[in-house]
Design goal:
homotetramer, Myo-inos-1-P_Synthase_GAPDH (chains A, B, C, D), 4-stranded mixed β-sheet, NAD(P)-bd_dom_sf (chains A, B, C, D), Myo-inos-1-P_Synthase (chains A, B, C, D), 11 strands, binds sodium ion, binds nicotinamide-adenine-dinucleotide, Inositol-3-phosphate synthase (chains A, B, C, D), Dihydrodipicolinate Reductase, domain 2, 2 domains, alpha/beta, Rossmann fold
Chain lengths: 400, 400, 400, 400
């Protein structure tokens, strides 16, 4: 759906990243890391786009990226990053190097939409317009070619679907009613991105732009969007291995798993409602890839682990003549360190998509997500090839 | 290197499999399994070629395959299979179903070339001719369209290279000297395959057809060959995961591993000389894929494990901002159950290659091997694609 | 509480084992194994009492033990054992050897108390008397010195406590009311053991003899009892390791775990109610030993695993200067093969306790249980010592 | 062998710890940690003696301990500790708190005995006297009641035994010959401890005081000694679990293991000679506890792991009716953080032993060692009980 866009040649210009959940662990890590990389203090390890063919695709440089965002917390990014130093995740040296950049970014953080924000009396339309104004003001003040909104806010419980979620016109009407809150918070932010004409990525499993009415609006208004739920650790590993078993004609009987994590995400997911969104996006791809639906999965809040995520998987497989084999994996990583470079990748790639005039869900960005919008492909190797093909063609579109 | 072959339309005809090491664990399992599948007693789980696009490629059917081979042991395939029942690897039901087929195959086993076979006084040329005669007699008696030789004999120590190993003419001369034994046993068998005009696969890490002079002879005499060292378990898993880390721009710092196994292969590899061949073919691909040469690896003979291979890997990876992540994997499988279906695949695919008039190393069969001949590709997903592309094109060649 | 019993010298006489749940996996395995050991077809590996100091304690010999029991299933022990052969757990050879003994034991199986057994109109007192009559008839017909009842029936959900559960007199009254079912099924069986004057062991986490009123009756009527919930795998391992960390003054921060299993027990525990009993008895000891209450634990029904139980634990520990260490364990075993020898041990040891005139809960048998009656000790090494001390002293009581 | 010593009441006085290898990782960590604990900046987690019954045994307080030592490196303890901060092992806060104490301790470091120390022309007797003089000068300058020497220097290769190693008189003669170097470096240090009248602990697997002639001299001259090779991680875990399997009458068939580590110790053990000492002390206890000699074990130098030691064990066990179970463990810890608190424990306990007039090997200190001197007990739980019994009785001896 590429248009012969007037946006051409513009992907490499100054670009804004607007984090919803800007003061969270992932956003703070991404901001700190961006500064460290831009200043040459750290190599861009973990950034997919720091390799060929992406480096020749005319993406915005790390030095071209400017950070701002929304949050409902008053703990600053700098303070958050300092905590991450204390847990041993972030090296003190890099925190020191990025200190001023964190302060600058945090000065760009505006109050987000708080679903528990008290009476208010404001309609969701008004709220979204306020959020959109924050984004356009950010774009204008920094003379940015474009802004990419990345949702990194706390995971919400699954949403009860309403008729308005499927019907753009009905939705727009409902939004103006101050007595109603037809959208979950993540979708208010997504709608604000549409209003601001900003590209959008959903790194969380929350509804966000995933509601059909919003996706349709995005398509109509020329906004490229990508989602959903960052595929960073255990799920990524599963989508690497499951296709390999299939290629060997080995039959997965069951794939059981457990996740242990602390930190902000651990605390959020200790809520049995919130965790449902996450569990369902985590198992969908696996069932698609293996054909087995015996995939028990748990996420436990283990506060003493801090930002470390430990994931154990047990795969039970049938082979030749009914023989059985088992594969166990244990993955241990700082969760935000996995997510942050992919977030920077998404910002760079959606800037290209926007410059190329692409609108609506970009299926080739499925590489980054547990539950890819616009695509049924979960195989990590296949997604990697599709992504490389896409970037070459989008780059050709922009820089012919 | 496909020739417009007179062999056309012939791939699906009756085909012989000639195992070097026919009475070993893998060969006996493959023979038993072939019978069970051919008789509809077991599905072809674990056979790559039992899936699309291979099922439409006109490969010989399982019912078209006839087994014979060489060995230097007097323990029959039936007896060997019975032991595998006792260890719990093979279900009694399938052994019963395959009993007669095992007896028939074992009746086709002829004495192999024994490097410690006493004075003899026979030149290696004479030995190879004897082995070749066994193969052609087998082909003629069973009216086979062709024979594929698969080396499944015990792993040999690495060979000290001699000038004759690089020079076909010098080699042919040396072979006629009864006082010399210029070739290791596996290469005598490989040379016999050439003399018999049989396709050839090296499932072991032994020298086999890997000596340059023999590879050149194979090419000249129109024999398709594939090798080397079956990629069935831990190494396969590594070549699945390592490219995935690379696609994420995550930097593998070290990849340490240990293998525990018993059985015949465990006993052979307890010899520090023999194990050198195996260790070197196991790490070559990993270093190529990761760029790291910190890859300590061990193979331990643990007789109480029988045919079970347990492999543990510890991968230490650098991510964003110098952060570290670890992945551990534990793989536990009956080794011969992994190898046997791939051996049947190779026989079917090399029959196609032969029918298509392909000669010399077939790089696209690299999917099956730790140390692929004619190819530098180790990435399992990439090999899978290449294999599928190849089978389509070879099939088109044979059945236009 | 040892009495100068007239039972002296009698421990080694013929003894009955009466399994509640006689046709289940553990009971069938124990019966098969007992026959195999008694007939010299298998060594008593896994039986604690087959070692010193137990072998000198005058326990009943394996050849002195006779099996009967209650069940509500009509699938015979022989049939059940045959299934266990098919899954690969039991060697065909031993099944053949034990075939007749299984048939004989199954002929001693009587209908159990079925809580969903339809209208009936029978009071629980009447039911328990019927069960007790089965036990005494078994004892008389086989001229047994005594019978030990071992509860191996399906795990029940936790019981809502009623006043009668604490008050023997009130309980006895309530039992006679045909309109009430004051006891869960496991406790009806426990009460039947009391009526029959049989020693009793609770290998399940169900209420059983654990209700205070029943425990008191047992004590009054001279019945030695032991429980609760067999400590065979993951929990045993935890009670081995946790005290070792404490001895090193290393501080357990969290101890997370997951269990995967299939089989009858897996299916039962897939019920969220039933699993509550099990989860609570599994974590109680751990919290006592480590002081940490961050002990998330799951039990997943994975039918393809059959009787194999796979348990993964992740232990996060604080050491010197706040440093962190992790220990992961993966345990994989045939669950019934772990339980069965301990069940035979319990029968032998409770026979001794009965002969020694011990009544009520025997704390020193806590070694065998997740939630030991009459004891707060969970440390496996300490329990082992206590058990050895007890057997010496009980033996001296019986054979002075 | 306790004497009614005039040393009574003296255990709690100011005590010196003299580290051989004072600038190594373990010694620097112990020194830093001692300062942090003494100043109340960190709790004594990981110190066995910080718990009952040790806290009532009149051991020297942490504030009573003064550090000095020998080394052949010129990199100071402070610098070494700084490196440990950079690898993330030591928190910056504690380094800052301990900075001055590290400087003070490093000022007490004297040149050790360097076996490759050039021509010299000095006899080993003269060298040992020089080392002893360093120790006595340290004791006198700080007015210490006693000094405990703890060998923490790099692991040496196994020693070729000479007749002098068994015969004190012959040894004393050989030591005076400037042309001979009859003792390895670790034993020169051990002899120096004897000359200085200092208690001695061998935390390394090097020969040290383990040569019979030196052990005899220690006994004669009233020096309590303890060794050998600190039991801190994988080996400790094995001696916790192996006795538990035995108590269950479960039969260990094989126990395979791999260790990955970097740091100074990793580099030393990359030498195939040096690693032999370590491997042999690591497997001795395991074989004794399990009866199995199938215990393949590896130690790999993986520099990127720094001071982290990762150890994987695979235990294959036979249970009831020949069934098999497996236990795998993965241990990941900062090696020096495990060792350092035990080193402080040993200093405190040997001070008590010295005050109690105990001489020669103290078998009850076997708890701390892979290869305990004077004892065949490897069972960690049994060693823990023995240690507690010993400290009570030694304390009673000193403070009646
Ligand atoms: N590897 C990974 O870290 C990973 C992978 C996939 C998805 N995710 C998702 O990314 C998200 C962020 O993870 P995190 O670890 O940074 O979590 P976090 O709890 O540290 O941060 C979430 C932030 O969102 C803010 N927030 C909450 N509600 C908001 C609202 N209505 N408007 C604006 N801000 C709001 C919070 O105040 C907080 O600062 C989570 O949804 C998580 O599930 C993370
Ligand atoms: N997953 C796997 O099982 C796997 C994977 C890769 C490679 N391999 C290789 O496959 C080979 C076979 O493995 P296996 O487990 O069946 O071993 P095995 O020891 O059971 O069988 C080897 C057989 O080769 C025979 N043999 C030895 N020297 C011979 C000679 N000179 N001529 C003819 N026969 C000879 C032996 O008598 C024996 O019957 C080994 O080299 C092994 O390394 C196996
Ligand atoms: N390692 C172990 O196997 C282990 C460890 C601890 C506890 N346990 C407990 O042992 C018990 C038995 O385990 P299993 O694997 O043999 O289970 P199973 O499901 O195979 O057998 C249970 C048997 O109990 C019978 N039963 C159910 N209700 C009954 C009743 N009211 N009266 C009489 N019989 C009844 C069933 O018909 C079945 O035959 C379970 O409670 C389990 O939790 C087992
Ligand atoms: N968990 C553990 O850390 C652990 C457990 C058991 C045993 N150990 C043993 O403790 C010892 C110390 O380990 P580390 O990690 O501190 O090693 P390290 O390499 O960091 O330190 C060894 C120190 O010894 C010094 N040294 C070498 N030769 C010497 C000599 N002749 N005289 C005096 N000093 C000398 C070196 O210069 C170095 O400073 C090793 O032998 C190790 O095997 C450690
Ligand atoms: Na999708
Ligand atoms: Na208790």
């Amino acid at each position: 759906m590429m248009q012969n866009a007037s946006a051409r040649h513009r992907a490499a210009e100054r670009t804004g990243i607007w984090f919803v959940g800007a003061r969270g662990s992932v956003a703070s890590t991404a901001t700190l890391g961006l500064a460290a990389i831009a200043e040459g203090q750290a190599p861009p390890t973990g950034c997919v786009t720091a390799q060929e063919p992406f480096t020749s695709a005319g993406l915005p440089e790390f030095t071209d990226l400017v950070v701002g965002g929304h949050d409902i917390s008053s703990v600053t990014m700098t303070k958050r990053a300092e905590c991450l130093v204390e847990t041993g995740m972030v090296p003190p040296r890099l925190f020191a190097a990025a200190h001023d950049a964190l302060e600058r970014a945090d000065a760009e953080v505006r109050p987000g939409y708080d679903p528990h924000g008290g009476p208010g009396g404001e309609s969701q339309q008004a709220s979204a317009e306020r959020l959109a104004a924050d984004i356009t003001s950010f774009r204008d003040r920094h003379a940015l070619a474009r802004v990419v909104v990345v949702d990194l806010s706390s995971t919400e419980p699954p949403v009860d679907l309403a008729p308005e979620h499927d019907d753009p016109a009905a939705l727009l009407t409902a939004l103006t009613d101050p007595a109603r809150a037809v959208l979950p918070a993540s979708s208010v932010s997504a709608y604000a991105a549409i209003l601001a004409g900003a590209a959008y990525a959903a790194f969380t499993p929350s509804a966000g732009m995933g509601l059909p009415a919003l996706a349709q609006l995005a398509r109509e208004r020329g906004i490229p969007v990508a989602g959903q739920d960052g595929k960073t650790g255990q799920t990524w590993l599963r989508t690497v291995m499951a296709p390999a078993f299939a290629a060997r004609n080995l039959k997965v009987l069951s794939w059981a798993g457990t996740n242990l994590l602390g930190g902000g995400d651990g605390a959020t997911l200790a809520d049995p409602e919130a965790v449902r969104s996450k569990l369902s996006s985590k198992t969908r791809g696996l069932t698609a890839l293996t054909g087995s639906d015996i995939t028990p999965l748990h996420i436990d809040n283990v506060p003493d682990l801090g930002d470390i995520k430990v994931a154990w998987d047990h795969v039970h497989v049938e082979g030749f003549l009914g023989s059985r084999l088992t594969l166990q994996t244990t993955w241990s990583a700082h969760d935000s360190m996995l997510a942050a470079p992919l977030v920077l990748d998404l910002a760079r790639l959606l800037a290209l998509a926007h410059a190329a005039g692409i609108s609506g869900p970009v299926p080739e960005l499925g590489f980054f997500f547990k539950d890819p919008w616009g695509s049924d492909v979960h195989d990590a190797a296949e997604q990697s090839r599709a992504l490389e093909g896409w970037v070459r063609s989008a780059a050709a579109q922009v820089q012919p």
